[in-house]
Amino acid sequence: MNALTDRLNQLQPYVLGLFRIVVGLLFLCHGAASVFGWLGGTDGSGGTYETGAWPSWYAAAIQLVAGTLLILGLATRPAAFIASGSMAYAYFNVHQPQSLFPLENGGEAAAMFAWVFLLLTFSGPGALALDGLWSAARNPAGTQAAGAKAERDEDEGRARVGA
């Protein structure tokens, strides 16, 4: 079981990166449907929100921008934080007044996106992100030092467990 856990831990950054990309793409699709009428638009027949209409058009703009940033893994934490807030706003101001539970008020997607983006705010982008390339380019010595520290921490953890 320990070998399985070790392997899963090694793959965790890559799975987190793929998770971020897929969720970002789903969020981007919502924005594209609302702003450009793609994928059926807002009403299933290619309709869009009126430019500048509060709050729907602004939510769609956040979906477009944040979804793109999340796919790229660029400014992941701020983009996820803003996206989480916009989805919490959508849930509590649009869906929750109709009923308490998401299944009853049609707010499952808003609630799920809010929590997923909050998780990404705290977990970071994972692998396959431009955030990592940006920090490595800005501070190559710091990246090497962080890698060496992570290896030392891992070795110390094995020593404590007796592996």
Topology:
Elements: H1 2-36, H2 56-72, H3 76-95, H4 102-105, H5 108-123, H6 130-138, H7 140-161
Helix pairs in contact: 1-2, 2-3, 3-5, 6-7
CA radius of gyration is 20 Å
Count of discrete alpha- or pi-helical segments spanning 4 or more residues: 7
CA-CA gap between termini: 13 Å
Tell me the structural class. mainly alpha
Low-confidence stretches: none
The average pLDDT is 87
Q: What's the total number of strands?
A: 0
General shape: globular
Task: Give a quick account of the main beta sheet: strands, pairing sense, barrel closure.
Answer: none
Helix content: over 70%
Order of helices and strands: HHHHHHH
Taken as a percent bin, the fraction of beta residues is: under 5%
Put the structure in a nutshell:
75% of the residues lie in helices and 0% in strands.
